[in-house]
């Protein structure tokens, strides 16, 4: 888990490192590194008192509360996607839906006229972009995809060998 730490200079010299909720702790030091290091010690002590950090997954149907024991592996919970549904009497949504439907109708009519007149044009393909050849993040992504595929293949082989 990463937390945001506010580093602020002190009038007397040095720095203060502050962490917000759920810690609400601060520490001072002669420089930013020392202040941050002292804050880390305070956070370690805070957690050493038996406090645990967890996350709460909220879906439209219910809140899922994963509370693991110390050093216990947690099973990933099924993710239910959030559905954003408008209120039945939401005038803004109704007006926007009507405007979108009307715009789609007008665009479809215009496209049908162009097709009937033979004036419809096909958009040219996007220009080739070879930045991916030199972009290191693309190479990292390709490597991650290859590792993922290898792991999938290995898992499939294990399952096939384990099957009776």
- Write the H/E string, N to C: EEEHEEHH
Indicate the multimeric state. Answer: single chain
DSSP E strands, number:
5
Q: Bin the strand percentage.
A: 5-15%
Measured distance between first and last alpha carbons = 42 Å
How do the strands of the widest beta sheet line up side by side? 1-2-3
* Nearest-integer average pLDDT: 78
Question: What spatial form do the alpha-carbon principal axes imply?
Answer: extended
- Sheet/helix structural class: alpha+beta
Instruction: Give helix % range.
Output: 40-55%
Write structural notes for this entry.
The chain has 164 residues and is of the alpha+beta class. Among the domains are: 5-48; 86-120. It is 43% helix and 12% strand. The chain has 3 helices and 5 strands, in the order βββαββαα. The chain has a 3-stranded antiparallel sheet with strand order 1-2-3, with helices on one face. The longest helix is centred in the middle third of the chain and has 27 residues, at 91-117. The mean pLDDT is 78.
Q: What's the short story on this structure?
A:
The chain has 164 residues and is an alpha+beta fold.
């Amino acid at each position: 888990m990463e937390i945001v730490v506010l580093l602020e200079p002190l009038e007397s010299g040095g720095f203060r490192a502050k962490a917000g909720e759920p810690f609400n702790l601060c520490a001072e030091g002669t420089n930013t590194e020392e202040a941050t290091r002292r804050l880390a010690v305070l956070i370690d002590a805070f957690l050493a008192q038996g406090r645990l950090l967890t996350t709460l997954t909220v879906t439209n149907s219910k809140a899922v509360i994963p509370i693991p024991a110390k050093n216990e592996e947690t099973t990933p919970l099924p993710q239910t996607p959030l559905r954003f549904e408008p209120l039945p009497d939401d005038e803004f949504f109704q007006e926007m839906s009507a405007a979108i439907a009307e715009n789609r109708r007008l665009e479809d009519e215009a496209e049908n006229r162009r097709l009937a007149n033979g004036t419809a044009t096909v958009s040219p393909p996007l220009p080739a972009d070879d930045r991916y050849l030199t972009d290191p993040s693309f190479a990292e992504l390709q490597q991650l995809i290859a590792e993922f595929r290898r792991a999938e293949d290995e898992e499939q082989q294990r399952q096939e060998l384990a099957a009776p």
